Here is the input.
Amino acid sequence: MNRTAELFNNLGEYYAAGFFEDENAPYNARVATAIVRHFEHAPTPEFKGYCGLQGYQALWRLNRYKIVNYDYNCGFSVNRTELNKAVQDMTPFDRTLLERAVNEISFTVMRLVPQRYAIGGNGWIHCVPNYERVLEEGLLGYKKRLDAKPDSDFHRPLKQVMDALIAFFNRCPGLLGRVPNHPAKTFQEALVSIVAIWYLDGCDSLGRLDNVLGKYYHGEPEAYDALREFWTLTDINTAWHMYLADKPEHHDFTMLCIKAQNGIRRPNTGIRIDENTSDETWETIFDAWEAHNPTPSLYNDAIYKEMLPQLTNVSPEDLEHYAMGGCTETMFEGRSQVGSIDAGLNLLEIYRNSDSYESFLKALNYHVKTACEAVVINHQFAAKYNPAIIRTLFVDDCIDNGRDFRDCGARYNGSVINLAGATDTINAIAADRSIKAMFGNDNPEVNAIAHKLYDFVFKEITSQRTYGWCLPSVILLTTYAAFGRYIPATAGRTTDGAPLADSSGAYQGTDIKGPTSLINSVLSIPPKCGLGTLIFNLRLNVDMLKTPEKRAIVKSLITTFFKRGGMQIQVTIADQETLQKAYEKPEDYPNLMVRIGGFSEYYTRLDRTLQAEILKRTEHCC
Here is the structure.
């Protein structure tokens, strides 16, 4: 063992120590050794609750590292404060070794997309592992497939990691000693296996969980409490998306998934809606919303199935596996590497720096190309220096292709390119043309501006290739305030540095002609070409779900939106009085949730600027 690895080892930093055992080895071998050493030294976890594993990052925090930890997005995270503490009493030579080592780790996780294009993401990679295959094959099935591969520089590290994982789970108590090593046979085994792989992947996204886990559900009375336990774990870990398929054969389980999330912030649940969506599904959704749980958000299944074959290379047999990862970025569960979000553009920034509309369009062309070029450079760097061993194991077809997940080993590869400030730019263009109307009020001239702008930028993005296809999105997370801070006042934004619009809908509080006018404006985009996805926030008065008659109106509003080409809609049900009280006394409303930028968040966890923006949203009555 070299001195750097020995120093990390003495500090109990086995993950980092493994990375430096052989500094002359390829990066994939070094990362694999880091993972192997972590699980060799990891204490055996207790089997707790129904899910088996519990707490924050249950598998990657077993050794209680302080300096270098695992991160699902880039493999490593570094705590320099703890590093500084650790080296205080070391010799200058040893201190230099550790500081150089941490600098090398920091280098491997660099992101090379310029700040200008880091709009909602900077080479981020959300992912849905192939949970279904793990349940069917178990890790021993994966080992069998790996053992059939040559003992190459690519496959050897994967085999070492798989052997280490199998050995680790073999010494675990309870069902963890059986799954995920073996195929799941019962509902609890399936859930324990999914939870284990979810923790192993770093607590990211779940894909069509109702379809995968629903195959093992046979009316078990404990399932409701088991799901609430799992949803609580996703909340503790601030996990990401779950996309409910609501297939007829698993319908009861889908309903259970929604009901069990009541009062729990995560996961970011969405559900497919089509012409066959049952009355029971609609009522279950409305019950959740009425209980002030702003999930699930709704997705137009027909639009995705129409547009994905046109804009990606997905096969007919894999189309059914489209899902959302992260906030709500489109991908294919267990089959894709999608930069989510890879890069983006602040349209208002570009417009404010243009002399004319024509120069604005020319600048858009330049910035789309330049952002995508930056994505390519960033991806090439990550493929060489930042291999993703866990995802290479659990995303098809990396093993068979002999290529790392970050090196386009997956069956499908592509980028989501994000747009901020679109609504604000539409309003600014309208104001410059002396049109006294704001986007979101169904003004024909403003809608025409929106259509022309979105049509242009969508075509610019989808015509590009990074390491795969490019899909546009409007996913603003909680960043729409930050992206406005460096932009002077524009129409709707009355002060310099004011926040941008929070979705593809109207600027907060400027949609004054009702929800139908707002929806007509959004449909002018047209939304179905923004397949990355286009977030659409709608805030409804709490009374809109109080009676069957009013629920029928809300259902009609949404289904009409979808029939006319709408893609996604997320609804917050919270009355102004409650939000105002929570703004004034947040300690009294710790569990109040709102939908924001593709996910749900506790209102009181938002900063004061975002809380104020939520208060500005128009509260619609149908």
Q: What stands out?
A: Residues 1-71+75-108+145-176 form one domain. The mean pLDDT is 96. Residues 139 and 181 are 4 Å apart (CA to CA). The chain has two domains: 1-71+75-108+145-176, 201-616.
